[in-house]
Each structure stands twice: as C-alpha cells, then as structure tokens.
Write a structure and sequence with these properties.
It comes from Nesterenkonia xinjiangensis. The glycine cleavage system catalyzes the degradation of glycine. This is Aminomethyltransferase. It catalyses: N(6)-[(R)-S(8)-aminomethyldihydrolipoyl]-L-lysyl-[protein] + (6S)-5,6,7,8-tetrahydrofolate = N(6)-[(R)-dihydrolipoyl]-L-lysyl-[protein] + (6R)-5,10-methylene-5,6,7,8-tetrahydrofolate + NH4(+). The protein is an alpha+beta fold. Among the domains are: 157 residues, Probable tRNA modification gtpase trme, domain 1 (Gyrase A, domain 2, 2-Layer Sandwich); 88 residues, Aminomethyltransferase beta-barrel domains (Elongation Factor Tu (Ef-tu), domain 3, Beta Barrel), CATH 2.40.30.110. 22% of the residues lie in helices and 31% in strands. It has ten helices and 20 strands. Strand 7 and strand 8 form a beta hairpin. 51% of the residues are buried.
C-alpha cells in the first residue's frame, strides 16, 4: 500500500493552523519526534535518526503511526458488484478475511488513487485510501454507488491505524494478544486480516505493510490507540522495537520497489505504465476507466509504446532525486532525455544509490545503462528488476 501525494518535507516544531494531528500526537511529542507536513497532517518525520530507524525495521522491528490514512466502509447486498464497478480489481473473488491491492481510476484510465480493500464479511468491506486522496476517493465512491443497494461512509475521523514492521513483528504482536489468539497471529497469511484482543480492546489485525518486511497493521478507535501504542513500545522493548517516522518509511518502501502516489502514480499514468497487474479485464462489470484501459492494453502501453516504470541502481556514489532527467548513454539519442526520476536516494540497506523512473520503453530492459542528470552532470545507473530489496523468507 502507498502513502500520500508527496515525500516527507521540512520538519515543523509546532502545529500549524492548517495541519491536522493524529490521536497519537502527544505520544510523538513525548518521544521527541521531529514533525513534517505530510499530506496536510503533522506527522513524525523521525525520532532519532532516519538511518537508525531504517535499520531497526530491517533488523528487528519498527512502530509507525499511519492514522492519517483513510478508512471507508462499504456495506450492503450489492457491495461486491458495486466495488467491481467502482474499482479496477475483482473484489467479488476476495474471500472473507482477505485483502486486495487495487486502484480507483478516472474514465480516461488515469489513477485517482491506489488503495487496499479488506473483505470483512460477505457484504462488508473496508477500503483504505491514501491520506491526501481520502476526500477525492470518498466523493468518487459515493457518486459511483448510485443505483446499488449499498451504503458507503467515511469513518476515518474515528479510526486510527498503526503498524509494526520487521523480522520481530510476529513475535511482538504474539506476545501481546490473548494466549488463545497467538495462533491467529502466527497463521495469518500475507494480505489477510482477523480480529484479536490486546489490553482488552478488539483490534482488526492485518498482515500488510509498506516496508518490504513482514509486519502487521492495526485498526482501532482513536480513543484507544494511545494505550495500544504504549503497550507495543513496552512489550516490544526486548525485541528491539523502535518508533519510526516517515523519513525511513520512504527509504524502506523505495528499497521494496513500492510506488508512492504523487511520485510513481498519478492521474497522468495508467496501471500498465506503472507495471501494476491489478486491472481485472476478465470481470463482467463495466468499471470506471474500463474502455480506456482496454485501449491502452491493446496499444501496448507500457510494453511496446509510451513509458514504463523501472528500477535504476547506481554505479557511482551520487543519487538521483525526483524530477531529475534520465538520459540515454548510447545510440542516436545518447545524451538526450528519455525519462524522469520519480523517487531516488541512497539505499541504507544496499549501500548505493537507487531510483525509480519512468523511461521510454525502448530503454526499459534490465541491464540498460542510463545516466541521471544530477545538477548538470550525468551519473551512471543501470536498469534493474524491481524490487531492489527482498527480505529473507
């Protein structure tokens, strides 16, 4: 799952009038967090060092506040067929207790947002959009509900979301749930959800995440999240659990090759260019954007025409950043722009620069040598298969 419309920006030391706080703001302040404006929310950027927090997630576990994300509930007899019309994925095939990554698109196939949908019961789903797109997504979903026997409502104001990510995540969560629920945690598959109890409170526990590590995301009421946050920090201390901000979340998701809305995904791109095999053209429903996406597929968008999202691994020491031009290094177009970086930085885990970029399809094969123009000087990179990093299973 992705996050919001921009990478972490400058830190803030006070609550600006136009920034929103999560229910955990006081917990972050008590831990000495530096804050940033992230999609209109005052979110923790880091607590100590982004490198320390990044390595904690890769080596032990990190604790994240994700309460800026949206929660939209869909319920009713037509819930499945409605979602199959509103979104590009086939939600009728999602089993109860399972989750699905999907997109909501415009009529022209452009991506309004990427999101995760959980099937809670036969006729009820929980849809989690990105923070800055929540209102846009909810408005589109409300409009698309016309004619269906379904209710759609936004419960984001009352729900918090926190995550434990890393190799020790299962051990930490298992140590806090009731004894008779430890098998739920241990046996919960990836992209699945179930209900557990921590500190007497019922929590929707999902085995999902945005870091490339094993981990869990937890949904519960705002007035109960502070106690859960403190219980996790206390219970996870012996496992190396570290509170983590959005700076390391961005470097973690980049290593894992996960797209960020506003960087890799936008209304100007389709799923085919982004390399996301999530469009269910085999389903019966005439979902929003279907005709445009069928045409894009027929034209070979992202395969034989247009541009494709690729991974670039640095052969030197300087990193490319979002917006930097990507240049051809050979052939008739040597030295000319053939794409643009969407996200890039040095990889703390791998020890060299990495980037994602949209490049013309003829330059998208792994092994292709390209330059990134960093302040007027070409830096050597090579196209590689995403992700850059895979955890040991």
């Amino acid at each position: 799952m992705t996050e919001t419309t921009s990478q972490p920006g400058q830190t803030t030391t006070s609550t600006a009038p136009d920034l929103r706080d999560t229910a955990l703001a006081a917990e972050h302040e008590a831990l000495g967090a530096s804050f940033t404006d992230f999609g209109g929310w005052r979110m923790p950027l880091k607590y100590t060092s982004e490198l320390t927090e990044h390595h904690a997630v890769r080596q032990s576990a990190g604790l994240f506040d994700l309460s800026h994300m949206g929660e939209i509930r869909v319920a009713g007899p037509d819930a499945a067929v409605y979602l199959n019309t509103a979104l590009v994925g086939n939600f009728a095939k999602v089993r109860i207790g399972k989750a699905k990554y999907s997109l909501i698109c415009r009529e022209d196939g452009g991506i309004l947002d990427d999101l995760i949908g959980y099937r809670i019961t036969e006729d009820e789903y929980l849809i989690v959009p990105n923070a800055s797109n929540r209102e846009t997504v909810f408005a589109a979903m409300e409009e698309r509900a016309a004619g269906f026997d379904v209710e759609v409502w936004d419960e984001s104001e009352a729900i918090s979301l926190i995550a434990v990510q890393g190799p020790q995540a299962q051990a930490i969560v298992s140590s806090l749930v009731r004894m008779d629920e430890t098998t739920i945690v241990e046996n919960l598959p990836y992209y699945a959800a179930d209900t557990v109890t921590i500190g007497g409170e019922e929590i929707l526990l999902a085995r999902t995440g945005y870091t490339g590590e094993d981990g869990f995301e937890m949904f519960l009421r705002d007035d109960k999240v502070g106690a859960l946050w403190r219980a996790l920090l206390s219970g996870g201390e012996d496992f190396g659990l570290t509170p983590c901000g959005l700076a390391c979340r961005d470097s973690l998701r980049l290593e894992a090759g996960m797209p960020l809305y506003g960087n890799e995904l936008s209304t100007e791109r389709t799923s085919f260019e982004a390399g996301l095999p999530v469009v269910a053209l085999s389903k019966e429903e005439d979902f929003v954007g279907r005709a445009a996406l069928e045409q894009a597929k027929e034209e070979g968008r992202g395969k034989t025409t247009g541009q494709r999202l690729v991974g670039l691994t640095g052969l030197g020491r300087r990193a490319g950043r979002g917006g930097h031009p990507v240049l051809a290094t050979a052939g008739d177009r040597a030295g000319q722009p053939v794409g643009e970086v969407t996200s890039g930085q040095p990889s703390p885990t791998l020890g060299h620069p990495i980037a994602m970029a949209y490049v013309d399809v003829e330059f998208s094969e792994p092994g292709t040598r390209l330059d990134i123009d960093v302040r007027g000087k070409g830096q050597p990179f090579e196209v590689v298969q995403l992700p850059f990093y895979r955890r040991e299973r």
